[in-house]
UniProtKB/TrEMBL annotation:
GO biological process: respiratory electron transport chain
GO molecular function: 4 iron, 4 sulfur cluster binding; metal ion binding; molybdopterin cofactor binding; NADH dehydrogenase activity
Keyword Metal-binding assigned: yes
Listed GO CC annotations: membrane
SMART domains in the cross-refs: Molybdop_Fe4S4
Ranges for domain 4Fe-4S Mo/W bis-MGD-type: 15-70
SUPFAM superfamilies: ADC-like (SSF50692), Formate dehydrogenase/DMSO reductase, domains 1-3 (SSF53706)
PROSITE patterns (UniProt xref): 4FE4S_MOW_BIS_MGD
Name this protein carries in UniProt: Nitrite reductase
Iron-sulfur in keyword set: yes
């Protein structure tokens, strides 16, 4: 198994042109990839029910990385003498890894090794990675970047509905909503083709309300923009429910028939009169009332949250407050209505269902559930008692690396935490303290640049697999061509390592076979894929989980009759506003929040290397209000420093009246001195482990250059 993995020939794959999906975000826009006679690969739009032929600039340019000059095509090993990364053979690289893993595990045992995955991996890879960690390495320390992304909404969904599926209804429902409330979501930049649904919604006479501290491209299209102080959404939600109660808009029959626990929530929001929420958030009472009316009196009503509401140390409670509101209004399960969360990464949904998460086994099963362990161990052919227990969430894991009690080796597949983790300078130090850092990537990310061993992997157009989009719809990613010589797929890497580590289970390299195994492992779990097959996906526009049987239906809409709780009822949970983990003070008087721009993706490893995207968004910037800039004596384009208790970033000021004067914003797509995460707070949500990316206290200073 030392040569490159062979891509498979499977149903649906035609040579030279394939129908596939974009490699980036969770919208997973349909696209056609064509290999021209010259070998160049072009992207063509494709009709798919979610994007309806639309693509954003990132999708259009995605193929540019396939033949990029900076593409990794050989393993790299750090040379002990020079400290440089040098090309090496696969055999040397894999041997170095196995020797290193054995060395660190020799004394302390299996938990001396950790694995970090990503929500961009296909279902097959996410599944194989979890299985590899639990059976080949036998470590409990595996987690992934979805912890930085989806975890707060996931935890809130689990506790209210008993299941976590980003959208429990088709995306197309947005187009027919009478009222649509977007909380901390900027799809005009983060999922541009989704805006077609918003346009359709408004053309039909629907009302769009956006809650964002910035007047974003999305908020500009709204009928009403609420511009709260970051970190105050929970108070806003409680006030909206307070108004709905006072006005008699609560759906008493629904609450009685389909939910439990309302009384405690009713009592707690009684204290959230609108003026109190206005004092905290700055959102005028009149706007709160208008919003509550639009939600409480319309027929088809959808409430969506995204990272702006979720990436807080109280993210789970904030989402819960909006779920409470949705339940009180009788939305979940009502046709055309509901609560949902906009999942972010390409396979953010599937990536959290099949075992990369510290506490989970495939099928969204709990790793501490004896029956789940029995079932999955049976599929893997190992005794259940050999499976490790739950590990720890991503930030805690990263922050423990190289410490006396923490893991001494780390394998990274599909993440770049040096840029994307909160308080990143500290995490960078932890990574440097490791005895062994292994990174599998197709480009030399900032994290790969620190590694002892770098393994070059295939890109999306070079391997088959499945992705689960933001609607819970399982899609087929189809290979257009083979990986370049010297490059292997992630599945082939894991299989080879497993063999060298003498793992008991088989690790197939053919994604078709891996998916087949995943189906069996997920059977009977909350995210049941047993009836999903590649052939069935090919025959329709994807298959929606749960789908337990080959000939039974799939589930585009959840919650029509019951919730996924033992008694079928949804759960209310009273939640209280609390301040951000770090509040402003005389030394750090401004609120700092972070997010995205259209032309860059995540840590930027991929999109910073695409020429058109680099032209569109060449550098980081600090967005600040002209009034604030004047006080600071800063002109547009001048370099500024954003300083927090943890570190600083430097970037040019971008003056804009779109942001609150008490708040500054920076995108997080850049490393080095412009790294937003040098500044962010590493406080995490107690339930989900989600870091507080969206608020901390800073000061902004002019950089006086010589
Ligand atoms: N172009 C692009 N698209 C992407 C990505 C990308 O990196 N680039 N990443 C993908 C991924 S993984 C994700 S998770 C999604 C994220 O998609 P979004 O959640 O839409 O993106 P963000 O920009 O992180 O945050 C959304 C908004 O939250 C606002 N915000 C900040 N603080 C608060 C607050 O306290 N309350 C409220 N209500 N709003 C606040 C910000 O101003 C921002 O406009 O995007 C996906 N799509
Ligand atoms: N300040 C701040 N920080 C944030 C956020 C924020 O809003 N503000 N958002 C957070 C969120 S929501 C997210 S999702 C994270 C994302 O941040 P990261 O986890 O760093 O995500 P990516 O930048 O997508 O990193 C993916 C890496 O894996 C590589 N890769 C892609 N596909 C594959 C594959 O199939 N196999 C392998 N082996 N490698 C692959 C890419 O080249 C890239 O280097 O950032 C978080 N960090
Ligand atoms: S919206 Fe997302 S999936 Fe669609 S083309 Fe852009 S990055 Fe790709
Ligand atoms: Mo994300």
């Amino acid at each position: 198994m030392t040569d490159g993995a062979q891509p498979t020939t499977r149903p649906g794959r035609t040579p030279r042109e394939v129908a596939t999906h974009c490699p980036y975000c969770a919208l997973q826009c349909g696209m056609t990839l064509r290999e021209e006679e010259t070998g160049a690969v072009t992207v063509l739009p494709r009709q798919f029910p979610t994007n309806r032929g639309g693509l954003c600039q990132k999708g259009w340019t995605a193929a540019e990385l396939l033949d990029h000059p900076e593409r990794l095509t050989t393993p790299l090993l750090r040379d002990p003498a020079s400290g440089e990364l040098r090309p090496a053979s696969w055999d040397a690289a894999l041997n170095r890894i196995v020797t290193g893993l054995r060395a660190v595990q020799a004394g302390p045992g299996p938990d001396a090794v950790a694995v970090f995955g990503g929500g961009g991996l296909t279902n097959e890879k996410a599944y194989a990675l979890g299985k590899f960690a639990r059976t080949a390495l036998r470590t409990r320390y595996i987690d992934y970047n979805g912890r930085f992304c989806m975890s707060s909404a996931a935890a809130a969904g689990m506790r209210a509905f008993g299941v976590d599926r980003g959208l429990p209804f088709p995306l197309a429902d947005l187009g027919s909503a009478d009222t649509l409330l977007l909380v901390g979501a900027n799809p005009a930049e983060t999922m541009p083709p989704l805006v077609r649904w918003l346009t359709e919604q408004r053309q039909r006479g629907g009302k769009l309300i956006v809650v964002d501290p910035r007047l974003t491209a999305t908020a500009r299209q709204a009928d009403l923009h609420l511009q709260p102080l970051p970190g105050t959404d929970l108070a806003v939600a409680n006030a909206l429910l307070h108004i709905a109660l006072t006005e008699g808009w609560v759906d008493r029959d629904y609450v009685a028939a389909r939910t439990t626990g309302f009384e405690a929530v009713r009592r707690s929001v009684a204290a959230w009169w609108p003026a109190r929420a206005e004092a905290l958030s700055g959102v005028p009472v009149a706007d709160l009332e208008e919003t509550a009316r639009a939600l409480g009196t319309a027929d088809r009503v959808i409430i969506l949250t995204a990272r702006g509401a979720e990436q807080h140390a109280k993210g789970v409670d904030t989402v819960t407050a909006f779920v409470n509101l949705a339940l009180a209004l009788g939305l979940p399960g009502r046709p055309g209505s509901g609560y949902g969360c906009l999942t972010g990464q390409g396979n953010g949904q599937g990536g959290r269902e099949h075992g990369q998460k510290a506490d989970q086994l495939p099928g969204y099963r709990r790793i501490d559930d004896p029956a789940a362990r029995e079932h999955v161990a049976g599929v893997w052919g190992v005794p259940a008692e050999e499976l490790p227990g739950p590990g720890v969430p991503a930030y805690r894991l990263l922050d423990s690396l190289g410490t006396p009690d923490g893991p001494k080796a780390l394998l990274v597949f599909g993440s770049n935490p040096v840029v994307s983790a909160p308080r990143a300078a500290r995490i960078e130090r932890r990574l440097r303290d490791l005895d062994l850092l292994v990174v599998a990537d197709f480009l030399l990310s900032e994290t790969a640049a620190l590694a002892d061993v770098v393994l070059p992997t295939a890109q999306w157009a070079e391997e088959d697999g499945t992705m689960t989009n933001l609607e819970g719809r399982v899609l087929r990613r189809r290979a257009l061509r083979e990986p370049p010589p010297g490059v292997r797929t992630d599945l082939a890497i894991l299989a080879d390592l497993a063999q060298r580590l003498a793992a008991k289970p088989e690790f197939p390299t053919d994604p078709y076979l891996v998916f087949d195994e995943l189906r069996r492992a997920s059977a009977g779990g909350p995210a049941d894929y047993a009836g999903v097959s590649w052939e069935r996906i090919d025959a329709a526009d994807g298959v929606w989980w749960p789908c337990p049987t080959d000939d039974g239906p799939d589930t585009p809409r959840l919650f029509a009759d019951r919730f996924a709780t033992p008694d079928g009822l949804a759960r209310f949970h009273p939640v209280e506003h609390r301040p951000a983990a770090e509040e402003v003070c005389a030394d750090y008087p401004l609120h700092f929040t972070t997010g995205r721009v259209l032309a860059q993706y995540q840590s930027g490893t991929q999109t910073r290397r695409v020429a058109a995207l680099r032209r569109a968004a060449p550098d980081a910037f600090v967005e600040l209000h002209p009034d604030l800039a004047e006080r600071l004596g800063v002109a547009d384009g001048e370099p500024v420093r954003v300083v927090s208790r943890r570190g600083e970033l430097r970037a040019p000021a971008r003056l804009s009246t779109a942001i609150r004067p008490d708040t500054v914003f920076a995108p997080f797509h850049w490393g080095g001195t412009a790294r937003a995460n040098s500044v962010t707070n590493d406080a995490v949500d107690p339930v989900s482990g989600m870091p507080e990316f969206k608020i901390c206290a800073v000061r902004v200073e002019r950089v006086d250059e010589p």
